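Hi C.,

You asked whether I'd gotten around to modeling the 237-residue construct. I have! Everything is below, sequence then structure, no commentary in between.
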Amino acid sequence: MKQRTSTIRTRLRRHRATKIAAGAVLLTVALTGVGELAARSIIQDRLTKAAPSLGDATVGEGGNWALWDLANQRIPRLDVRSDDAHLGQLSPVSVKARLDDVHLGDRPTIGSTHVQVTVPPEAIAAAIQTAAPSAQVASVTTDPASGTIRAAVGPAGGGQLTLQPVLKDGKVSVIVNELTLFGRTIPADRLGMAEGALGTAPVKDYPLGLKATDLHVQPDSLEITLTGGPTTLPGPR
């Protein structure tokens, strides 16, 4: 009887120890999860301060633990995505960015940056509408063969506005080539559109020291590549 009682007590102690160990593991996982979220939030906060034009961006560490990276003050790679960013007067645009060799601390730095920007026809239409509020934009299409963008404007889309994306001095501008309306060509200045009015403001720089390095008119979008070398991020508050 005593042996049986001792066996039961031993099993109960083992069961209690197992439950305590399992609880400790769950608590550790939970705390790690909270810490991971907090670490990602800190990293994202610093990045969005440096590049507010990213809009509501999501940040990932390429499979690494943000908590570990934050503790070491170094992130080998950051992947950033946003579907509501803006590039000058072009908004919303989609952004896929890769930031390599990110160092945190009092003076955070980035080793290099590569960004792919996709500008949909809707963003170009919105930029036209902003530049010329009186212009009715019926549709916007891209023409990869000629490297131009065409917008049907005016009542029933009776006019055709031809735009030319231009890459110059590390910036992208979208200039007005011509407007054809009922067989007549109307100068761009009569539309209130100066050269570059639909692109990025020439007096401003891109964030993170980025420069536009490539530009392509695709069948359904305008694709822009930006690259950057070493630069800094805002430090901790």
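If it helps when you're writing up: Residues 11-35, 199-203 have pLDDT under 50 and may be disordered.

Thanks,
B.
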